[in-house]
UniProtKB/TrEMBL annotation:
Keywords assigned: Acyltransferase, Antibiotic biosynthesis, Phosphopantetheine, Phosphoprotein, Transferase
Gene3D superfamilies noted in UniProt: 3.30.70.3290, 3.40.47.10, ACP-like, Malonyl-Coenzyme A Acyl Carrier Protein, domain 2
Biased composition (Basic and acidic residues): 428-437
Superkingdom of the organism of origin: Bacteria
Region annotated Disordered, chain positions: 42-63, 424-448
Pfam families: Acyl_transf_1, ketoacyl-synt, Ketoacyl-synt_C, PP-binding
UniProt GO molecular function: acyltransferase activity
Record's protein name: Acyltransferase domain-containing protein
Location of the Ketosynthase family 3 (KS3) domain: 1-420
Length: 1012
């Protein structure tokens, strides 16, 4: 059998709410067994120490806490549907999600894949409670029950297209599910598999059965292979593993807990009773698994036994093991059973053992087995080549084989052979940084710092998970680079997006905690994705330069460094020096035109290339004056080398022009100053940046004359600090020489939309050729017109590509309403920089809806998957039967009825889209008969409180409605509005986007009926 890797896992067992707590409990030989919770059944009503007929001999067992808690809003499941669901479905749904995250996969990324779901389950007590009250059976109660739905729920909510099935082979169910999952992977039926098991004890029925069959331990505790072994103690729990073919896991860099080398399943056949175990079948299933794994019995170091703690079961299992291992000379097989700590978890027993073995191989230590210190001498373990684990077994740092058995009460046996992960496979992270590496050094990335991301379906969920991540980061010393990288891969897919640059883990933990507790900080670091991004790059022009611009970014970001070096290499043959060295030295010569223009071009090109490498897709381009050269390179008008030659010639030729020219900003429209400009042949309009924002350029004496006239007219003006009169008639002496260079440089039609500031509009298949660039020198910069057209195209993001934000502010003034619809991101905020600008820009872009190419953010050594704290689900909503099961006055137990709409189990937490404004809107809406009818019907069908429903609530995305609920909604609305003309589901379907849409449609129908 080809190896299968366990790449992710999650579990919840008695005394252990997660995998970390499970391992900690096993290592201290703790237990999670206690009294039957009052929520389940009144144990004293069904208890008889002697095990009288219809009674159990114990009031104890292994129970998980809060099995009624379910984050239905996370999965967009209405309260009514959640109430009808078997808690085993709810528990496994959340467990599977966390296991997928633990595998380093964002669950949403599996949508549409052939991922399979294989679930072991043997209890169906919820159905026994809820499907026997026929008058209360609803569509939700039907789909909320049944073994198949336990697996199908996971496939449905994660949108998985692979096999999806539930397995009931009694106590071996979940290991048989793992066996089937491995076979499906190896046959190519699926590429990823989620295998798990779940068991929740809702009634005393099985406890009574165990007692009557002589299988129940009076103290409710399994004592595997102990001299005190006296029967089964019931347990419950849920566990799931994510499986991949080993070669696929390695190719994708997924951490591997352990490897499944071989599995086998068989049946007892006709033995001494259908519930009696069969030694020879157990021995054969081990042999089959060894053969499939390609190992000998002597290769196996330890075994997780089935180990129920029944005298007969323990004896037969030991003899089956001894039949294969008795010949081991001086090296007995170490074995134990987790059931001593958590009880016999029935359908989840196999997955409980599998996770224990996988963690043992991962941590290289096998926990001691509880109750092992007083082993049963009748088992004669030494003679069988066996050793019960009384103390933890330290595993050597080499490939190690472990085994796992799970036997079904009806005779279906399963065994799995596991091996430690190979040295060439990634392992879930070590808890300490690698020897010889500091966190700071290891944390260097392509941008100088990582970006930690988190997403959640609501602000409350985001705060809850920020705290969970802060706690986890604070507890573990893990380099910040892999932490951030893993968060980018896994913690994504939800509406509310959080992003924060991080350079070390201690600061990250503190910042996460601060954001969770500070509404303003959280709002600043959070955004929401809304539709497909449309990004406009605005390339800043001359006047934005300053000494040492982007020097810190160059030092901190290898990505930016690469592209600035590339631009510098293209410019150097034409500038006679290095732009890079000019910037790094902080030389004031950057203000000399011959250096200014090449330097701005280099910065613009390097920033644009960096954000493109980071996955920011430029859709619209606009450059102000010299900024248009870098925009043209991005639009593939000409290659970098030709553009560098042209911009270097432009700057050099302009610098050689005589002095005596200047520029002046005027608070007026061009038409207001046209007469003054026409009267001065050496002055022209250099730029029109918007209404009442004109720049004049030309001879200084002529500008002074215009300035004096404007002063008398009360028009404000301001001289600009420039060396020459750019975009004016004074540029004429350089045009001929520049045109010759432009002819040689060439230039074609842009391959991306360019909003030309020469034309003041979008270029329509027009070349940006020598003629265009020559005209560009003297022509007015029509930024206002070009930017207004660009804004009309509806960009979601205005990203300013330059050393400081100038154009984005001007653009906002042009179209305030259009600007409000988008997001402005300045790649460099100005002179006061620290080198983390690109990381902050990436964080802002992610928050506002873009999905960066995260691989470009990090150096290769930081692109390591590390485990993060799993998603922390809300426990605010509770769904359970209304009262525990109890004996009636007669002998028959009273079974509580299922919950129905309008009868909340526990006061619900805030519902979807709720909050005081929404609740107020709902209260206001119920003043009109149609609104009142719709909101009440929606609340009733979904099981919500009326004030949880708002006209803004989306029926499918927020409230979890489906086609069955829509049919019921139609009928309930019709009942509430008897005077309205009958309508069909087909009439409603196009109007069901939101509650408000439905209200509007029904009001129109009501108004039409009244008018008629």
């Amino acid at each position: 059998m080809r190896p299968v890797a366990i790449v992710g896992l999650d579990c919840r067992f008695p005394g252990a709410p997660d995998a970390g707590a499970y391992w900690e409990m096993l290592m201290r030989s703790g237990e999670g067994v206690g009294k039957v919770p009052g929520q389940r059944w009144n144990a004293r009503d069904f208890h008889s120490p002697a095990g009288a007929e219809g009674h159990s001999n114990t009031t104890e067992g292994g129970f998980i806490t809060d099995p009624d808690a379910f984050d239905n809003e996370f999965f967009t499941i209405s309260p009514r549907e959640a109430q009808a669901m078997d808690p085993q479905q709810r528990l496994l749904l959340q467990c599977a999600w966390r296991a997928v995250e633990d595998a380093g996969i964002a669950p949403a990324k599996l949508a549409g894949s052939n991922t399979g779901v294989f679930v072991g389950i043997m209890g169906n007590e919820w159905a026994q409670l809820h499907l026997t009250d026929y008058a209360r059976v609803t569509a939700q109660v039907g789909s909320g029950n049944g073994y198949c739905m336990t697996a199908n729920r996971v496939s449905y909510h994660l949108d998985l297209k692979g096999p999806s099935l539930a397995v009931d082979t009694a106590c071996s169910s979940s290991l048989v599910a793992v066996h089937l999952a491995c076979n499906a992977l190896l046959s190519g039926e699926c590429d990823t598999a989620i295998a798990g098991g779940v068991n929740v004890a809702l009634t005393p029925a099985l406890g009574i059965f165990y007692t009557q069959a002589g299988l129940s331990a009076p103290d409710g505790r399994c004592k595997p292979f102990s001299a005190d072994a006296d029967g089964i103690g019931r347990g419950e729990g849920v566990g799931a593993v994510v499986l991949r073919r080993l070669e696929d896991a390695i190719a994708d860099g997924q951490p591997v807990y352990a490897v499944i080398r071989g599995t086998a399943v068989n049946q007892d056949g006709r033995s001494n009773g259908i519930t009696a175990p069969n030694r020879w079948s157990q021995q054969e299933v081990l042999s089959s698994a060894y053969r499939r794994a390609g190992v000998e019995p002597s290769d196996v170091t330890f075994m997780e036994a089935h180990g129920t703690g029944t005298v007969l079961g323990d004896m037969i299992e030991v003899k089956a093991l001894g039949g294969l291992h008795a010949a081991r000379s001086g090296r007995p097989l170490s074995f134990g059973s987790v059931k001593g700590s958590i009880g016999h978890t029935e359908g989840a027993a196999g997955i409980a053992g599998l996770i224990k073995v996988a963690l043992s191989l991962h941590h290289r230590v096998v926990p001691a087995s509880r109750y092992a210190t007083k082993e049963n001498p009748a088992l004669k373990l030494n003679a069988q080549g066996l050793r019960l684990l009384k103390t933890p077994l330290r595993l050597q740092n080499r490939p190690t084989i472990g085994g796992l058995s799970s036997f079904g009460m009806g005779g279906t046996n399963a065994h799995a052979v596991l091996e430690s992960a190979p040295s060439y496979a990634a392992r879930p992270e070590a808890e300490q940084p690698r020897e010889g590496s500091s966190e700071t050094a290891h944390g260097r990335t392509g941008l100088g710092s990582g970006v930690f991301t988190l997403s959640a379906p609501s602000a409350a969920a985001l705060r809850r998970n920020l705290l969970a991540q802060a706690d986890a980061v604070q507890r573990r010393r893990v380099p910040v680079g892999p932490l951030c990288w893993s968060s980018n891969l896994v913690k994504t897919g939800h509406r509310h997006r959080f992003a924060l640059p991080a350079s070390d883990s201690a600061a990250l933990a503190a910042a996460l905690r601060e954001a969770a507790g500070d509404e303003e900080a959280l709002a600043r670091l959070t955004g929401q994705a809304a539709g497909r991004p449309l990004v406009a790059l605005l390339f800043t022009g001359q006047g934005s330069q300053y000494p040492a611009m982007t020097a810190r970014l160059y030092q901190e970001s290898p990505l930016y460094r690469r592209y600035l070096d590339e631009a510098d290499g293209a410019l150097a043959p034409h500038t006679g020096g290095s732009v890079r060295e000019l910037l790094l030295s902080g030389d004031g010569a950057v203000h000399r035109t011959g250096w200014t223009q090449p330097a701005l071009f280099a910065v613009g090109y390097a920033l644009a290339a960096s954000v493109h490498e980071l996955g920011v897709p430029p859709a619209l381009l606009l450059g102000h004056s010299v900024g248009e050269y870098a925009a043209a390179v991005v639009a593939e008008v000409f290659p970098l080398e030709q553009a560098a030659r042209l911009v270097a010639a432009r700057g050099a030729l302009m610098e050689r022009l005589p002095e005596g020219g200047g520029m002046m900003a005027v608070r007026a429209d061009p038409s207001d100053v046209a007469e003054l400009v026409d009267g001065e042949p050496l002055v022209g309009v250099a730029a029109v940046n918007g209404p009442k924002s004109t720049v004049l350029s030309g001879d200084l004496r002529a500008l002074a004359r215009i300035e004096s006239v404007l002063l008398r007219q009360g028009v404000r003006s301001r001289r600009l600090d420039v060396s020459h009169a750019f975009h004016s008639p004074l540029m004429e002496p350089m045009l001929e020489r520049f045109a010759r260079v432009a002819d040689e440089a060439g230039g074609g039609v842009p391959k991306l939309p360019v909003y030309s500031t020469v034309r003041g509009r979008l270029l329509q298949a027009e070349p940006m050729d020598a003629k265009y660039w020559t005209e560009h020198v003297s022509a007015p910069v029509l930024f206002g017109d070009a930017a207004a057209q660009l804004l009309d195209a509806g960009p979601t993001h205005l990203v300013e590509v330059g050393p400081q934000p100038v154009l984005s502010r001007m653009a906002r003034k042009l179209r305030p309403a259009a600007g409000e619809r988008g997001h402005t991101v300045a790649l460099v905020p100005g002179p006061e920089t620290d080198g983390g600008e690109l990381a902050r820009a990436v964080a802002e872009l992610y928050r506002t809806g873009l999905d960066p190419r995260w691989s470009a953010v990090y150096a290769e050594e930081d692109r390591l998957r590390t485990r993060l704290a799993p998603y922390h689900f809300s426990d605010a909503h509770r769904f359970w039967t209304r009262e525990p099961i109890r004996k009636s006055a007669g002998t028959e137990p009273v079974v509580p009825a299922p919950q129905v709409p309008g009868e909340p189990v526990v006061a619900p937490a805030v519902g979807p889209g709720a909050g005081e404004p929404v609740a107020r809107a709902a209260r206001e809406a119920v003043g009109h008969p149609v609104e009142r009818a719709v909101i009440e019907a929606v609340a009733e069908v979904g099981g919500y409180a009326v004030d949880e429903i708002s006209p803004l609530s989306l029926l499918y995305e927020d409230l979890g409605f489906d086609s069955v609920m829509v049919m019921e909604l139609k009928d309930r609305i019709q009942d509430r509005l008897p005077g309205m003309e009958a309508m069909s589901v087909q009439d409603l379907l196009p109007r069901l986007s939101s509650v408000g849409d439905l209200i509007g449609y029904l009001r129109e129908r009501a108004d039409s009926a009244t008018a008629a």
